[in-house]
Design brief:
By secondary structure, this protein is α/β, with parallel strands linked by helices. It is built from 13 helices and 13 strands. The chain has 2 domains: 166 residues, Aspartate Aminotransferase, domain 1 (Alpha-Beta Complex); 242 residues, 3-Layer(aba) Sandwich (Aspartate Aminotransferase, domain 2), CATH 3.40.640.10. 41% of the residues lie in helices and 13% in strands. Strands 2-9-8-7-6-3-4-5 form an 8-stranded mixed sheet, sandwiched between helices. Helix 11 crosses helix 13 and helix 12 packs across helix 13. The mean pLDDT is 96. Bound molecules: pyridoxal-5'-phosphate (PLP).
């Protein structure tokens, strides 16, 4: 196949004609497929089902200190759950609060605490300030951006590079005291799949923000989600770097077992320095008496430690690899020769990022939808849902069955080719007409 950019207008017209016919065939299949949200599928969830058989007798509900987990108390979480989540976050158990079943909920609560009361080192609640700004490395996680938009903050896009956010830009922007935080998914970033380099982590730890209570929101949602066990990316420990830099308060750490055990029904954790933990405990203590320690106990007993988590994640990876391969094979086979798209092969996480020709992402996603395949909305990975180049598409292959992923990926490739082919043809026709 000739690369589209090298085709003559006549060849392009012929190609678009063929693609339209193929597209009509797909449309008539009545597909109903979804590559939009990063959710585990049923087989993956089944892997953690033995957890429910673990707590049976009265005695089983006592934590390692003998505390009855069926009762109120222990706001910060039971020791064995703090240790387990601490291992995932690479923090000490007393640097972790295990709370609820959703890390996004904890992030929202922390933004809320900043809004109402600020954080240690600051001048009080951010609500008192005329403008509050948050840095949003983009493409990034739409729900992060939505949280800070919901609080009325101004979202500032920071370009994502192959090794993390552009730190030259971040270092410059944090000189503004209105900038209170930055969203980061440092490992297998949603949606780019990349892991921040050691240099990016070090520069992050050494930031000198003008706001005394600026916080890095370090959402390590995919900390243990290697697709090839043993061959995953290594993320430098931000807390260790912050301590070296004498700035241990500058980050809040988040994770959950939503994509380890049960989505939205696992256990979630927030971590930080002693000052941050004390601050959060004070405010969380007004929101609730204590969290669901029965679920904490179930998780701690089932996984035991990092070895338990990693062996569980190996089983998940075996289920996920064919789905990722189905997408990557389709991209390689059907898009590589055309030269109209680029992508990376992530070593873990839940997403494959696809960049198409500028100005073609929305049209591609609309074509997919019309033929029965739901993709994440084009633009969703940017603040305010606005991808200035209209080129990024997030592919989430985890939820559908492999054969459906294969079908959806083939249709997606066809739609990319059609959207880009049409655009190039239009441009070529315009050039012919104007002689430009
Ligand atoms: C980066 C990231 N953080 C957080 C979440 C949500 O986590 P939770 O279920 O713990 O709220 C997701 C879900 O897709 C995610 O991709």
């Amino acid at each position: 196949m000739t690369a589209y950019q090298k085709m003559t207008p006549a060849q392009l017209a012929q190609e678009v004609q063929v693609l339209r016919e193929q597209y009509e065939v797909y449309k008539n299949k009545g597909l109903k497929l979804d590559l939009s949200r990063g959710k585990p599928d049923g087989d993956q969830l089944d892997l953690a089902m033995p957890m429910f058989g673990i707590l049976k007798d009265q005695q089983d509900f006592l934590d390692e200190t003998g505390f009855d987990c069926r009762n109120y108390g222990v706001l910060e979480g039971i020791p064995e759950a703090r240790r387990l989540m601490g291992e995932i976050l690479e923090l000490e158990p007393d640097e972790v609060i295990v709370g609820g079943s959703s890390s996004l909920n904890l992030m929202h609560d922390c933004v809320g605490i900043g809004f109402l009361h600020g954080f240690p080192g600051g001048k009080g609640g951010w609500r008192k300030e005329e403008t509050v700004k948050f840095l949003c490395p983009s493409p990034g996680y739409d729900r992060h951006f939505a949280v800070t938009e919901h609080f009325g903050f101004e979202l500032i896009a920071v370009p994502m590079q192959s090794d993390g956010p552009d730190m030259d830009v971040v270092e410059e922007l944090v000189k503004d005291a209105a900038v209170k935080g930055i969203w980061c998914v440092p490992k297998y970033q949603n949606p780019m799949g990349i892991t921040f380099s050691d240099e990016v982590v070090r520069r992050m730890a050494n930031l000198s923000p003008a706001a005394g209570d600026f916080r890095i929101f370090w959402d390590n949602a995919y900390a243990v989600h290697d697709l090839e066990p043993g061959k995953g990316d290594k993320l430098l420990n931000l807390m260790a770097e912050l301590k070296k830099a004498g700035k241990p308060d500058m980050a809040l750490f988040f994770t959950s077992t939503s994509k380890i055990s049960f989505a939205g029904a696992g256990i979630a954790a927030v971590g930080g320095s002693a000052a941050n933990i004390a601050w959060l405990k004070k405010h969380f203590g007004l929101q609730m008496i204590s969290g669901d320690k029965i679920n904490q106990l179930r998780h701690a007993r089932y996984f035991k430690n990092m070895d338990g988590i990693l062996s569980h994640m190996e089983k998940q990876a075996a289920l996920l690899r064919p789905k990722f391969d189905a997408v990557l094979d389709a991209l390689e086979r059907e898009l590589a020769p055309t030269g109209v798209a680029s992508w990376t092969r992530p070593r873990g996480g839940y997403f494959i990022p696809l960049d198409v020709m500028d100005g073609c992402a929305k049209r591609t996603v609309a074509l997919c939808k019309e033929a029965g395949v739901v993709m994440t909305g084009a633009g969703a990975t940017f603040p305010y849902g606005n991808d200035p180049k209209d080129r990024n598409i997030r592919i989430a292959p985890t939820f559908a069955q492999t054969k459906d992923v294969e079908m959806a990926a083939s249709l997606l490739c066809l739609c990319v080719r059609l959207a880009c082919g049409e655009k190039l043809l239009q441009e070529a026709q315009l050039t012919e007409k104007t002689g430009a």
